[in-house]
Every structure is written in C-alpha cells, then in structure tokens.
Q: What sequence folds into this?
C-alpha cells in the first residue's frame, strides 16, 4: 500500500474510495461502520497497518485498487443509505460483511461487540439479517460470532478478556461492565467482567491505567472490591499476549473467591431504583430518545 495511503486518516481513505462507486454500490465493512459513527473502527488491522476500505457493488465495472477492495455481491438498493455525503450499506449489512470476512472467530466477535458499543447494530438485528442470508460465504463464522457477542463490551481488550474467560478457561460467560453496589445501594464500581457466582472481577488495564492518578484510582477501587468480598484479577496488554497465563490467573482468582464463600459478601448486582440501566443497545437507544444521552458520553471517547 502506498505511503500516502498509509499516512492518510481513515475518513480520507473512505472518501477517496467512495469516489469510484457506481450507481448501485456503497462503502461497507469496517469503513461503513466507521462512517456511521462506530467509535472503535480505526481502519487498522491487527498489525497496525491500514485496512483496505471495502466497497460493495453488484456490478463488475469497478475494480479494486491500492487502498480499497471491491466486493461484488447481491445488493438490493434498499440496503444502501446516504450518510453525511457518502453512500454506504446499512450498518447491519456492513457488520455482516465484517463477521463473514474476519480472519478469526475472535476478530469477528470483536467486530460484533464494537458495532453494539456505538449502538449501530443490536445482536437481535444482526441475527435477523444473518438468518435471512443463509447461503452467503462466511455465514457459519458470522453465526458463531453472534453466539459469543455481547452488547456491553467497552473495548477490544475487554472482548479478548471475556473470550479467554469463556473459550480459554471454559467458564460461563461473565457479566460485562455490570455495576456493583453495596447492600445500601451505593455504587462500588463497574468491573470489566464479573462472575457473579464466585465474585471474581476481571479488569483490563491499558496504558492509561499504569501510572499516575489513574493508577491510584484503580488501586482504591480494587481495595473497595476486596473490602466487599470481590476478588479482582487485573490483566494488561502484555498479559493478553500470553493467553495461557491469563487463563491460569482467572482460574486461580476464581478458586480464591469460591473458597472465601458467600458469607464474606457485602455486594450485589441488583441496582437501586435510581440507576439507569445501559447494558443493551435497546436500553441505550431509549435513553438517548429520553434525553439521557449525556450518560453515555464515555462511549464517544474510544480510540
């Protein structure tokens, strides 16, 4: 890929690729989701290199060029929409493309989680589309990804941690970003993942969590968790590169939590009446319609 393409921001690359679209065609895949407002769709692949912009068309009169790839597929005009000056496929179709063409199942699950993070596509909407298109290439992977997806993951590393919890450690799927309260209804904290049976709280700490004020805040929160009978297990980016190590730490923390027993607990996941739930795409969309969008501002600060 030319150096100029490599250096260009994703929005510029999307606009340049969209310039060649035929009458029936649209930006799709990660680029379609990015243009629709997907905060985590950075346009970079796992190695950090620019990902090609994907274009969907039902004609053969447009060819792939450096920086973008053209996919000729069935494309009803009803699945195209104009958004901020560009024609793109509906977000649910863009996500379906991502799920089918992802290099790994874990990557596909991450794509589904990230589309839900920005409330672009709910799991139910993705399932409805997948079931309506059973014969397309990659559909088995798309369905497998949706079975493992979660609408309340807040970042790709959190999804990786959850998959190590389930596929790696063989445990039931944990609750994601579930607020935890003391027995008087005060908010203790919101761990990235939580096993409510044992009280094991998994936390992913990125670069911002390793130093200074954020590190001190994290330590205080971990102390609160322990004081109320939760067992924190903290994972970093370096840890995720050693999945077997992470699995062992998860299982060890869970064993400690189970050995402590429920009598040491002074926490609950039962939210007080004043708490506004935001665990699902539907709940968050309703909150925005009701004027509570400011409660979701953290979702606009993705990388």
A:
């Amino acid at each position: 890929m030319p150096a100029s393409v490599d250096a260009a921001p994703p929005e510029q690359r999307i606009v340049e690729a969209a310039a060649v679209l035929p009458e029936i065609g649209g930006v799709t895949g990660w680029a379609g989701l990015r243009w629709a407002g997907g905060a985590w769709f950075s346009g970079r692949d796992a190695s950090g290199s620019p990902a090609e912009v994907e274009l969907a068309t039902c004609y053969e009169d447009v060819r792939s060029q450096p920086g973008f790839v053209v996919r000729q597929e069935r494309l009803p005009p009803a699945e195209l929409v104009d958004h901020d000056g560009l024609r793109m496929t509906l977000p649910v179709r863009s996500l379906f493309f991502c799920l089918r063409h992802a290099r790994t199942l874990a990557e596909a699950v991450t794509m589904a989680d990230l589309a839900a993070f920005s409330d672009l596509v709910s799991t139910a909407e993705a399932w409805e589309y997948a079931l309506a298109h059973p014969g397309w290439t990659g559909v088995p992977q798309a369905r497998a990804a949706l079975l493992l997806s979660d609408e309340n993951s807040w970042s790709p590393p959190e999804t990786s941690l959850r998959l190590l919890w389930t596929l790696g450690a063989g445990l039931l799927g944990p609750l994601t970003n579930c607020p935890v309260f003391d027995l008087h209804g005060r908010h203790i904290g919101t761990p990235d993942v939580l096993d409510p049976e044992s009280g094991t709280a998994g936390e992913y700490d990125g670069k911002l969590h390793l130093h200074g004020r954020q590190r001190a805040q994290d330590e205080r929160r971990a102390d609160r968790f322990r004081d109320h009978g939760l067992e924190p297990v903290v994972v970093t980016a370096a840890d995720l590169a050693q999945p077997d190590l992470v699995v062992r730490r998860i299982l060890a923390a869970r064993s400690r939590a189970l050995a402590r027993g429920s009598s040491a607990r002074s926490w609950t996941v039962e939210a007080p009446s004043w708490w506004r739930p935001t665990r699902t795409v539907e709940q968050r969309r309703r909150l925005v319609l009701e004027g509570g969008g400011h409660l979701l501002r953290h979702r606009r600060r993705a990388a």
About this structure: The first strand starts at residue 25 and ends at 28. The two ends are 23 Å apart (CA to CA). The domain at 156-268 is CATH 3.40.960 (Endonuclease; Chain A). The chain has two domains: 3-148, 156-268.
